[in-house]
TrEMBL record:
Stored HAMAP family: Glu_racemase
Gene name for this UniProt entry: murI
Provenance organism: Muribaculum intestinale
Enzyme class at the top of the EC tree: isomerase
InterPro entries: Asp/Glu/hydantoin_racemase (IPR015942), Asp/Glu_race (IPR001920), Asp/Glu_racemase_AS_1 (IPR018187), Asp/Glu_racemase_AS_2 (IPR033134), Glu_race (IPR004391)
Gene3D superfamilies given in the database record: 3.40.50.1860
Gene Ontology biological process: cell wall organization; peptidoglycan biosynthetic process; regulation of cell shape
Classification via Pfam families: Asp_Glu_race
Catalysis performed (reactions): L-glutamate = D-glutamate
Protein name per its UniProtKB record: Glutamate racemase
Protein's job: Provides the (R)-glutamate required for cell wall biosynthesis.
Binding site residues for substrate: D13, S14, Y45, G46, N77, T78, T196, H197
Keyword Transmembrane helix: no
Length: 276
């Protein structure tokens, strides 16, 4: 079993998108220390198989545990969809039953009744997240009366990471994909952004949808859910250090990561390169 010495809260993503989750978590819970790990060298995860995503995610979780993290947030919809349940059920009991790994899908699904008026939910995400049907399954379990329609948007992440979020190309693909989603169910009144990159397209998204559709971005939702979790589990809260610090790790070039991460965090970022 690993050491129970308190450590930072770990935040993992396959690339950059999870930084939008970290940004909102830090705003909500600024007192804690955080360690962010982006597996940029092997991104994107969205088109990879379940087995590969699970293997890569477990490697990252183990690395963060070895760095002293008692709690790890999978700030990645693909990792949450394809790896979280197996890690929770099969790996944690063997690694350390006292540690926790949490995802971003369940908190988003839990609050849907607060937003939808007619129960028609639209989801946009990477091909991997949509193919996993994780949102469909989770919504079906929690809110069986809701109607769910999903649409994969493979171009949205490359547009964001190539700094094209405000370009005519971004507007074309966002309008096209949202048009197809709304053609499939014109009654959609709540749209889940099922990828942590998508908040950087929010202005373009808002223009492309009817005014009555509410858009759910996961950062503030996950931040509120984590705050509630730590309130309900003071034993875990006591195992998370409070120094108001943040460190960034990447499996790719530290300089490239730092440059693009600053776009997501709205502040200068300095990262360190590691190997998984």
């Amino acid at each position: 079993m690993l050491s129970a010495v308190p450590g930072p809260i770990g935040v993992f993503d396959s690339g950059f998108g999870g930084l939008t989750i970290l940004r909102d978590i830090r705003r909500r819970l600024p007192q804690y220390d955080y360690l962010f790990l982006g597996d940029n060298a092997r991104a994107p995860y969205g088109t990879r198989s379940f087995d590969v995503v699970y293997r890569f995610t477990l490697q990252a979780v183990r690395y963060l545990f070895d760095c002293g993290c008692q709690l790890v947030i999978l700030a990645c919809n693909t990792a949450s969809a394809k790896a979280l349940r197996t890690i929770q059920q099969c790996d944690l009991p063997e690694i350390d039953p006292a540690r926790r790994v949490l995802g971003v899908i369940r908190p988003t699904v839990e609050i849907l009744p607060e937003f939808t008026r007619n129960g028609h939910i639209g989801i946009v995400g990477t091909p991997g997240t949509v193919a996993s049907r994780s949102y469909d399954i989770e919504i079906g379990k929690m809110h069986p009366s809701m109607t769910v329609t999903s649409h994969a948007c493979p171009m949205w992440v490359p547009l964001v990471e190539n700094r094209e979020a405000s370009s005519p190309g971004a507007r074309y693909f966002v309008e096209r994909d949202l048009g197809r989603l709304l053609d499939a169910d014109p009654q959609i009144d709540t749209l889940i952004l099922g990828c942590t990159h998508y908040p950087l397209l929010i202005d373009t998204i808002q223009v492309a949808i009817p005014s009555g559709v509410r858009v759910l971005s996961q950062g503030s939702i996950v931040a509120d859910s984590l705050a509630d979790y730590l309130r309900r589990h003071p034993d875990m809260a006591s195992r998370c250090t409070e120094g108001a610090s943040v460190q960034y790790l990447t499996t790719e070039s530290a300089d490239r990561f730092s440059s693009l991460a600053s776009l997501f965090m709205d502040t200068p970022v300095e990262a360190r390169q590691i190997e998984l």
